[in-house]
Amino acid sequence: MYIEIMPSSVIVGSGSCIPERVIDGSHFINSKFYTDAGDFIDKPNEEIIKKFVDITEIEERRYLRNDQFNSDLGVQAAKEAIYDAKIEKEEIDYIIFASNFGEVSANGMANFMPNMAARVKHKLGIKNRKCITYDMIFGCPGWVEAMILADDLIKLGKAKTILVIGGETLSRVTDPFDRNKMIFADGAGAVVLQKSEQENVGIIATNTVCDNAEELLYLENSHSLNPEADQEKMYIRMHGRKIYEYALKNVPAAVKETMDNAQIGIEDIDKILMHQANAKMDHAMVSRLYKLYGKSEYDENVSPMTIQYLGNSSVATIPTMYDLIAKGEMKGHSFKKGGYVVMGSVGAGMNINCIVYKMP
User: Model's pTM, two decimal places?
Assistant: First the structure.
């Protein structure tokens, strides 16, 4: 009897683009902050910034230069990933680019035409007309969802080599009068995902959950909190408490479901790479996951974090972190052969997704 072996989807190269501009708390010292109700916050900014750091642990973040665009960050990450994978760019069957706002101009105007993946293909100089370009608009979980789509395309025999990019320039879409602007950052990460005939390696389980009822407005575009500011322009608006409660309730369960599908337990996990919106929420989500397995404590080395010095770069967070670990650039962290890596995210929608990846 002939049994067809399903191909595996394996990461063969990675890259990232971390912008050069380091933005610390002093950047916001002269800001004027308003509440969600539009009231001026009459407190010293030093106090506001300190409280923000205490909660989020974000002390620094990265912003792109004025002459750069999201596609530029994506191209740099893509070039690194292609080089690392030791492939020719014309081999790429699909480019999938995850973002929330596309190509954002210096004055904050979002642009999706042409789409981001097509822009990257053009800037990479890829001539192959059969290299298909898709954008993934799925909130902060966009890069993970793009990986899930890429895995499906490979397993269905539609592709052998896929470039998956996550890039965002959130510094250009934040309300200057919103304290939450201190959370957001810029950056890009990319991997080359390729078909492999090896069994039981690469992406071995995936899971996506979409709650789009009242959760739809937990993260949205909205007008400035300052009632005297330009009310035509729209900015990213995050309802932090709602998101925190939703994530804590739903993300650990979704991750466990993915692990159950992969038929592995918490003791099998080598690394947990979670999207990072604020450190307090991430610590709580991972702790809750371990509690689902009856564990009251966990080794924080299992769940590395970059948010303290890179901020929340949305779709770029996980691929950037993967690249840094894979290349030995995160002190104290590495991937081991045969180790299981969980990648999970939550964001606008609200959407949740998760991948269990086994290192070849």
Answer: 0.94
